[in-house]
Request: fold
Amino acid sequence: MFGVRKPEFCMKHPRFLRFLCVVLMSLPVFAEAKPNVLIILADDQGWGDLSVHGNPDLQTPRIDSLAQEGALMDRFFVCPVCSPTRAELLTGRYYTRTGVHGVSVGQERLNLDETTLAQVFKDAGYATGAFGKWHNGTQHPYHPNARGFDEFYGFCSGHWGSYFDTEMDHNGQIVQGRGFIVDDCAGRAMDFMSAHKDQPFLCYFPANTPHSPMQVPDAFYKKFDGAAIQLRGSKPDGEDLQHTRAALAMCENLDWNVGRLLDHLKKLGVAENTIVLYFSDNGPNGWRWNDGMKGRKGSVDEGGVRVPCFLRWPGKIPAGIRVPQIASSIDLLPTLADLAGVDVSGTKPMDGRSLRPLLTAATPESVAWTPRELFNVAPGGKVPQVSVRTQRYRLDPLGGLYDMVSDPGQSRDVATEHPAEADRLRSLAREFASSLPPGFGRPDPRPYTVGYSDFTPLPARDGTPHGTVRRSGRAPNCSYFTNWTRVEDAVTWDIEVGQPGRYEVEIYYACSKADAGAELECSFGGAAVRAVVDQPHDPPLVGAEADRVSRADHAESYVKAFKPFPLGILELPAARGTLKLKALRIPGAAAPEIRYLNLRRVGAPAR
Reply:
């Protein structure tokens, strides 16, 4: 090379040799390849829902293998519910600082001035994709494609009404899914990894199970149908065994999909240089076995926020280590960035810290690690529910102190035995509560954004029904508007138009033949469009036939195959206001049922 053929030349010119080495190592072919990152996030899976944690009622060998081949975080904490945990993963910050303060009707949106995990990895040259449940905003610029993900396939709500052949979002467009939703999204994630196997990729797979509705393919459910459950929850009288059986079957299906992803990494030849992270977003969604911990999903007690967490990176993270130090979802972004050598200097100050020293040590107990406190806050309610966790103690929202080493079930308050520690943690809890933004937990004042992309969906979830109009289910997420029986009634959306222009207004509707012919009007400011919905479209409700547990509480709505119908072209100024959908005439018993009002920008404002 360079005409240098004799070793004695190198001996005589060491400076040249060093210079040559620096040049060569700076070339991509010689530089150490950046690791890929695969993040797998379960939904409503408790700490006890894995065989690696001692549950004999199910087998999760592929998830367990991540703990056996990597690190098991023994005391890992997240938030009590879904979207807050996702916000902490994406930002490395407590969700209370990020604009997220609930799980629906706009409260799930991540503030636009937050820099996400996907953005920092994308800036570092990574291909980025997300496949599954997003739950941090639907309309651009809150949509995952606007938050750093090149590719998105899944859904943006917190609940979904059916898990088979369901409506999905592919890069901002409504499409039809195929098969069981988790299998479908895992397949898309595999396709993404295949397409980017020759460059570093960040693949985010936020599965939506075992969240209700309790649906799972027969191949996984048959093992649990009527099966005896050996380990029972801490409140046996409150446990629904049918729900438990379905949840465990869903966990085994999730394990099978994790196996598909891990096998695919191996098939692509990239498993050795891929960091795999697995965790869950909150505690179990039922009173099933969770090793005696107090609380479940929605609670800031141990059982509501302690979840599985495993990290595998062959050759870098020692196999089979157990990390005893407390850690949290706020630590994940700084940890992954540190492991991958990705710069995070452009983000807001993080509350989390890198766990790399613990993960790469042969004995994490020997690492000099500064003790700290972790905070858990439950969204909603007039008074914030704040819990503080140290390595040994948990302070609950009522001020009770519990020794989590000797009393993991939080059965005995030891505040009077350790008054100084109780007072210290109470002071920290009050300080954290005082840092919450004004209006935390109350209705979200932010409008829904329109015109920041060519297509803006406004689902019924984000609208407000008036008069007799009601939602099809208790939870807004996947609901539609129904029972529209009077012309005095309406549906409205609080919107802000980011780009003025002419927009095609489209509804996704259903109506019987007897109710066809209603005239609808959509208006904003002084402009309006009207159309007669004269085409009947009366599809059946679906979902009940696949349920393993009855939806007695109607949390998730059953769904229909709604049909698009154009209402006309509406000119929208760049302004905030009320978008209103009303019925001018209802010839039958009711106006059409409405799943979406969509706005598609088709041109600049008329001159």
